[in-house]
Amino acid sequence: MTINQLLAAAYVGAIAIFCFPAEKLSAQSPDGSLQLVLHYQESNETRFSSHQGIVRPVSLHINARLPFTLEVPREKAGYPVMVADLDGGQINAIIREVEVPLSGSATPPALSISEEGTIDLAFQAGNT
Questions:
Q1: Could you tell me the mean pLDDT of each successive run of 10 residues in the chain, 128 residues long?
Q2: Do 87 and 43 contact (CB within 8 A), yes or no?
Q3: Does the reported pTM lie above 0.90?
């Protein structure tokens, strides 16, 4: 499996297992799509909109780390969120600027959508 496929699975998994009602996701953008904001560097952000709730794949180098933000409607603030790494790598929650592993922990943190309609995460690619 390539890094593209791994990341696509991780992002789709992260988006798909939000604990939202079974309604179609719409986000803060004018066209109603879910937004994925990649933070390559402090001053370099790249935004991607979803199509029917799915964001295009993003590739990373082996062992690379990439923080990202998912933006959903503000009315979803407080909704619980479940995130899982599906095929390698690791997803960490970013809570008050500290990364907290979501897998391999006996007590992963409870996550929810912020008042701004966002959740901050980071993906750490594996070495295969």
A1: 52 46 42 77 83 80 89 87 76 82 69 90 84
A2: no
A3: no
